[in-house]
Amino acid sequence: VQLVESGGGLAQPGGSLRLSCAASGFTVSLYAMKWFRQAPGKERELVASISTDGHTTYYADSVKGRFAISRENIKNQVSLQMNKLKAEDTAVYYCNALIVNTPYWGQGTQVTVSS
Questions:
Q1: Is 18 within 8 Å of 67 (Cβ atoms)?
Q2: Which of 36, 63, 65, 89 would you label with 43, given CA atoms 20 to 30 Å apart?
Q3: Nearby residues of 60 by Cβ (< 8 Å), 6 or more positions away
Q4: CA atoms of 42 and 71, how far apart (whole Å)
Q5: Binning pLDDT at 50, 70 and 90, where does residue 59 land?
């Protein structure tokens, strides 16, 4: 099982970024998928999740209305569209899958929001 995040970088406040999580070794469509983030000096927190059928999503209050998680099953990946970015969104973003009670993580992608 491998998860590889991409799409991070530097964005200005109010800008947008789209993160992708490419999966291998398992079929993304069979599992709920999640995005977490960890800012310097803070605990890792759940940002968004999506159910296997894509019909149920969860968002942290801090990103609700600005971020959108989606599945791209043909590509075996999930994405996180981040709009109206704020400085407090600066963090390393991680993709996560729970498979047979074992959590799998990607290496993370850095998102920095700064003018």
A1: no
A2: 65
A3: 45, 46, 47, 48
A4: 28
A5: very high
Amino acid at 13: P
Which residues lie across from 104 on neighbouring strands? 97
Strands 9-11, 109-113: pairing is: parallel
Among candidates 73, 91, 71, which has minimal Cα distance to 81?
71
Residue pair 29/71 in contact (Cβ under 8 Å)? The answer is yes
pLDDT tens track for 1-40: 999 999 999 999 999 999 999 999 999 999 999 999 999 9
Q: What is the pLDDT of residue 115?
A: 94
Helix (H, G, I), strand (E, B) or coil at 114: coil
Looking at every residue in the chain, the average pLDDT score rounds to 97
Q: In whole angstroms, give the CA distance from residue 106 to residue 115.
A: 28
Indicate the residue type of 80. Answer: L
Helices H, strands E: what count in the chain? Answer: 0, 11
